[in-house]
Amino acid sequence: MATYLVTGSARGIGHELVQQLASKPEAEINTVFATSRAENSRLKELTERYPDRIIFVPLTVGDEESMRYAVPIIATTLKYKGLKGLDVLINNAGIVGSVYAQEMADSDEIFHVNVTGPHMMIQLFLPLLRKGNEKNVINMLNRYKEFPAAAYKVTKAALNMLTVVWSQELDEEGFTFLYQNPGWLQTDEANAHADLPVGTGVGQILEIARRTGQEGNGRFLNIHVPGWEDKPGLHQYDGKDLPW
């Protein structure tokens, strides 16, 4: 019975992650800590539907005080439920920022949220992850081939290397660090023309996490969607390792 912590749970991929995790059999998933800056109506509906399985914790990635405040809340809840530790941390939260490099004046803020934020999440929750059975950390990246997203891409390249560094440092402790591309997903009206329903991409993310053992530590993995392996266009989803 695994325990998960998901950042950026209020909408999009994060919300779908929480929903799919909570709908799995209790023998697989015990508790999902859904974190975001605030609990919106959609997230509240989920916590009310699964009151024993989804626990909302206010947490703003990139805000050190907020992240530190969340640690004892989650630790106390795990202890109350008779659970040893945290099994899986999914660093999903992120922001896009400047589209073009010549306009990239907000790079410090984007780096703080997209790189420093996940790094601090790992540091702060490492004691709980060490007590967990699965010891998994998943960092997320959308490749955004369809538009420049300069600030996002620069910071996610840094997160790629950060994932590799963490994977090497904790390999002997049995950790598995994965960097995953969920695909271009229909997360909202602005992305209604994207490749895949959000449920398809998220389902693949969770399936990859489920079946990938420590042999996958440090890898950058693409999702696999039948029919998309060699599809013409910007995106292919073949389940293979992606280049750094």
Plain-language structure description:
By secondary structure, the protein is α/β, with parallel strands linked by helices. It is 39% helix and 16% strand. The chain contains six helices and nine strands, in the order βαβαβαβαβαβββαβ. It has helices at residues 12-22, 41-49, 64-80, 107-131, 150-169, 198-211; strands spanning 2-6, 29-36, 54-58, 88-91, 136-140, 176-181, 185-186, 196-197, 220-222. The mean pLDDT is 92. GO terms for molecular function: oxidoreductase activity, acting on the CH-OH group of donors, NAD or NADP as acceptor. InterPro entries: NAD(P)-bd_dom_sf, SDR_enzymes, SDR_fam. This is C-factor. It comes from Talaromyces marneffei PM1.
Outline:
GO terms for molecular function: oxidoreductase activity, acting on the CH-OH group of donors, NAD or NADP as acceptor. The chain has 244 residues and is an alpha/beta fold.
H/E topology pattern: EHEHEHEHEHEEEHE
Give the helix proportion (percent range): 25-40%
Quick one: how many beta strands?
9
CATH superfamily: NAD(P)-binding Rossmann-like Domain
Strand order of the largest sheet: 3-2-1-4-5-6-9
Task: Enter the CATH topology name.
Answer: Rossmann fold
